[in-house]
UniProtKB/TrEMBL annotation:
One of its GO terms (molecular function) is calcium-dependent cysteine-type endopeptidase activity. One of its GO terms (cellular component) is cytoplasm. The active site is at C75. Residues 50-162 form the Calpain catalytic domain. Pfam families: Peptidase_C2. PANTHER family: CALPAIN, CALPAIN-5. InterPro entries: Calpain_cysteine_protease (IPR022684), Papain-like_cys_pep_sf (IPR038765), Pept_cys_AS (IPR000169), Peptidase_C2_calpain_cat (IPR001300). This is Calpain catalytic domain-containing protein. Keywords: Hydrolase, Protease, Thiol protease. The keyword Cell inner membrane does not apply. Belongs to the peptidase C2 family. One of its GO terms (biological process) is proteolysis.
Length: 162
C-alpha cells in the first residue's frame, strides 16, 4: 500500500533528493534559434534568502492572477495554471498536502527542500517530486513566476511539469 509522501519522516524525505543536482550550479537552456545550448544563469534557492526574504508556497491563497509568463514564452502553461487556480478541488489534487509543504520558519527541521506534485496523464495520476532549486539570472526567476515575489507555487509547479 502506498504511503503518503508528506507523512514520511523528514529524514526519509531527504533521502529522495538527488545529490548530483547540487553539484551543477548552472542553468542550461535548449538549443533555441542558434542551434547551440547556452548557459543562462544559476539555480536559486528560495529558502536561502537568495530570491527573497520569507518565501512561501502560497501568499494569500492561490489565484489565477498570480502568474507571470517569464522568458520561456509558454503562455499555454500559464493559461493552464490560471485555470487550475480557479478550481480548488483540482489544484488540491495537483499540489497535495499543500499546507504540509509550506515553509514554516518556526519548524525549520521539517523542511526537506523538496516538493510533491501530481499530474493526471492518460487518466492516471503521476507523482512528481522535485527539489527547491529554481533557474535564475541575476537573482531573478527566469521562467513562470508569481506576481507576488515571495510566492513560489507556480515556479515549482512548472519545474515539476518539465
Amino acid at each position: 500500500m502506498p504511503i503518503s509522501f508528506c507523512r514520511l519522516p523528514c529524514g526519509a524525505r531527504s533521502r529522495c533528493v538527488f545529490v548530483f543536482w547540487h553539484s551543477c550550479n548552472r542553468v542550461l537552456t535548449g538549443a533555441g534559434l542558434t542551434g547551440k545550448a547556452s548557459l543562462l544563469g544559476a539555480w536559486g534557492l528560495p529558502l536561502s534568502g537568495e530570491l527573497c526574504e520569507d518565501p512561501r508556497l502560497f501568499v494569500d491563497g492561490i489565484s489565477s492572477r498570480d502568474l507571470n509568463q517569464g522568458s520561456l514564452g509558454n503562455c499555454w502553461f500559464v493559461a493552464a495554471c490560471s485555470c487550475l487556480a480557479t478550481e480548488s478541488s483540482l489544484w488540491k489534487k495537483v499540489i497535495p498536502d499543500h499546507g504540509g509543504q509550506e515553509w514554516d520558519p518556526k519548524r525549520p527541521e521539517d523542511y526537506a527542500g523538496i516538493f510533491h506534485f501530481r499530474f493526471c496523464r492518460f487518466g492516471a495520476w503521476l507523482d512528481v517530486v522535485i527539489d527547491d532549486r529554481l533557474p535564475t539570472i541575476n537573482g531573478q526567476l527566469i521562467f513562470c513566476h508569481s506576481a507576488e515575489h515571495r510566492e513560489f507555487w507556480c515556479s515549482l509547479l512548472e519545474k515539476a511539469y518539465a
